[in-house]
């Protein structure tokens, strides 16, 4: 299915790389097309090569393709209006931070590093023509019950990943969000101090 891409390029104060300015988080995912496995692997590989403190790589992912029981389970762990649209994504990725090492020592930077890995994943996916939408609205206890998750792994978010779908298939409320102007706080309000 070929869905026209909405013009969503950010109006930035200075020029950015196209892949950054054009990246956005849709809610309309194509509910029928399969995932391109090579593009999915590239996105996960980009996450693998993200920087981390002392190269600890304190991130873990559970990757669930649409049509599998695992996808349905992760979709069932979503809360709020995420339940209305995220199940259409070709892939749901549950993201975990490894907040302690194998010896029980804390890794206070783990969620920060996970965020970097997810950012790399989302930029690579966008560069390859896929879209991502990160969600914090999730039942974390349900994610803790997923296979392979041990006590070191803190569930943080779920990422919907796949090809863009038709926004007109969304509810009216979600269509409004899908097409609303992209806004960010001005840069001078983001920087607390600069010398």
From TrEMBL:
Question: Which part of the chain is the Nitroreductase domain?
Answer: 21-162
Question: Which GO MF terms are attached to this record?
Answer: oxidoreductase activity
Annotated InterPro entries: Nitroreductase, Nitroreductase-like
Sorted alphabetically, the keyword list is: Oxidoreductase
Q: Which CDD domains match?
A: TdsD-like
Q: Which family does it belong to?
A: Belongs to the nitroreductase family.
Stated name of the protein: Nitroreductase
Query: From what organism does this protein derive?
Result: Microbacterium aerolatum
């Amino acid at each position: 299915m070929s869905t026209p891409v909405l013009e969503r390029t950010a109006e930035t104060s200075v020029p950015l790389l196209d892949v950054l300015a054009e990246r956005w988080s849709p809610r309309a995912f194509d509910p029928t097309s399969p995932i391109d496995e090579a593009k999915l692997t590239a996105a996960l590989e980009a996450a693998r090569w993200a920087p981390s403190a002392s190269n600890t790589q304190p991130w873990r992912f559970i990757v669930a393709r649409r049509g599998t029981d695992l996808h349905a389970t992760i979709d069932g762990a979503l809360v709020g209006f995420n339940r209305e649209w995220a199940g259409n994504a070709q892939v749901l990725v549950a993201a975990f931070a490894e907040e302690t090492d194998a010896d029980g020592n804390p890794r206070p930077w783990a969620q920060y590093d996970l965020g970097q890995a997810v950012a790399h994943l989302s930029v690579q996916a966008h560069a390859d023509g896929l879209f991502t939408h990160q969600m914090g609205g999730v039942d974390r206890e349900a994610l803790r019950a997923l296979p392979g998750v041990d006590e070191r792994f803190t569930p943080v978010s779920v990422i919907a990943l796949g090809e863009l779908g038709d926004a007109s298939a969304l509810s009216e409320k979600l269509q409004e969000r899908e097409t609303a102007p992209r806004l960010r706080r001005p840069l001078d309000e983001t920087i607390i101090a600069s010398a």
